[in-house]
Amino acid sequence: MGYNSYSGYNTYREIGVKTASQGSLVVMLYQGAVSHLEDAIALVDDNNKINPRDMESFGKHIRKVTDIITELETSLDLDRGGEIAQNLLSLYIFFNKRLLSDALSHDKKDLKEIHKMLSDLTESWVQAANSTANAQVGIPTDRPAISITG
Q1: b/e sequence 118-129, b meaning 16+ C-beta within 10 Å
Q2: What is the pTM of this model?
Q3: Which has the closest alpha carbon to 77: 124, 12, 138, 149?
Q4: Which end of the chain is more exposed for a tag (fewer CB within 10 A), N or C?
Q5: How many CB atoms lie within 10 A of CB 44?
């Protein structure tokens, strides 16, 4: 793929992000986290080892997942979100703690477990974003956004 094609793709994605609904933005963040976690898991062998040349890439993917989860965490409206927001906050804290630990241990089983939970949450958000409840999602828009791409 040539530079111009890649540049056009990035522009298309940026426009998609800028015009997406709040629910769709949350879905995009989850999808980005799942994708980066899949890439990190692919670098770990069945003995929880990573080829030394892939160590930097593994770290970048894990860092991207934790950045996205932190963005989701700080986007929660704990006052209006009630019990659901509190539960999501607990999950996000859990995910980041586990990812920090797994970044050191390279525990593929743990990474797959987090991947499963994030994938399940993604599906729930897809359904919510496609429902009429999407209009009620309150995510602050006055904060800088993070990139979900590499």
Answers
A1: bbebbeebbebb
A2: 0.75
A3: 138
A4: N
A5: 21
Query: Among candidates 14, 145, 144, which has minimal Cα distance to 6?
Result: 14
Cα distance between residue 129 and residue 43, in whole Å: 32
Contact between 68 and 148 (Cβ < 8 Å): yes
What is d(CA 138, CA 99) in angstroms, rounded to the nearest whole number?
27
How far apart (Å, rounded) are the C-alpha atoms in residues 147 and 105? 26
Q: Is the distance from CB of 35 to CB of 115 less than 8 angstroms? A: no
φ/ψ region of 48 (left if φ > 0, alpha if ψ in -120 to 50, else beta) reads left
Other Cβ atoms within 10 Å of 60 Cβ, number: 14
Amino acid 112: pLDDT: 97
Separation CA 27–CA 122 (nearest Å):
6
- Sequence-ordered alpha helix ranges (H) in 43-77: 55-75
Q: What is the pLDDT of residue 20?
A: 54
